[in-house]
Amino acid sequence: MIERQFVSQKIKEFEIQQYVKEELRGVGLSHVKIQRTPLGEKIIVFSSKPGLIIGKKGQNIKKLTQVLKKKFGLENPQIETAEVDNKYLDPEVAAEEIVSALEKYGTQRFKAIGHKMMENIMDAGAKGVEITIAGKVPSARAKCWRFHAGYLKKCGDLAIEGVKRAYMQAKLKAGTIGIKVSIMPPDLVLPDEIAIKEEKEEQEEKAPEVKDKVVEEKNNEKKEKAEKKTPRKRTAKTVESSEDKKDNKKDDKKHRKSTKKKNNSEETEE
Predict the structure, then answer these.
(1) What global pTM score does this model have?
(2) Topology (CATH level 3) of domain 10-84
C-alpha cells in the first residue's frame, strides 16, 4: 500500500511538470521542481526569462495556481520563479530556441540555426555538444542532420548521469521535426583527467617543520663555503709565541758562545 502511494505521488508530480511545461512554452523554460512543505506544495520554475512567467502584476502565476488547485487537487500551491545561470549550458533552453527559430524562419535556414547554437554553447564553456535535427529537412524525405563539437561521452556512467540531454518537437507545415540536444557541462570531472603540479606548489604544500629544516641546511652550507674561501687570521697568541721562540733562540746562541770562550781560556792556561 505504501509503495502505491509513493508511485501515485510521483506520477502526479510528473503530470504537474508536463502541464507547466506545456502552459509556459516559449518562455525559455528549463525545468520544474516540486517540494512538499507544511504550508503546501512549493513549485519552483527555472527559466531564462522569469519576467514572462510572472506576467503583468502576477496574472500568469495567479491563473496557474487556480488551474493547479482545480485540476490536480492541490490545497495551497506556491509558485516561485528562478533564473538559469547560463541559458546556453541548459539543453532544454537551447532546444526551445532551436524550435522557435525553425518555426519562425522555416527549414531553409536549419544549418545556420544549428551551427550558431553549437558555437554559442561551446563559447559558454561546454566540453562538448551534439545537436540532431531529424525530419523532412529540407527535402520531402526524412533525414537526420548532426552538428557536433568538442568531446562528448557516448557510453558509461558519465554518459548517463553526467551528460545533459533534452528532446523537443517543432511543428511545421511539412510535419513534425525532432530536436535532440546533448551537452557535456564544464564542471564534469572525467576519470582520465590528470593534474600536473609544479615544484613550487609541492614545496608550498610541505609542512612548516620540513621548510625550517631545509632553510637551516641551506644556511649551514653557505657558512661552510664562506669559511673555505676566507683565509684564517693569525691570532695574538700565535704572534706572541713566535716572538718568544726567537728570543729563546738568541739566548741559546749567547750561552753557547760564552761556554766556548770559557773552554778556550781554560785550554790556554794549561
Answers:
(1) 0.64
(2) GMP Synthetase; Chain A, domain 3 (3.30.300)
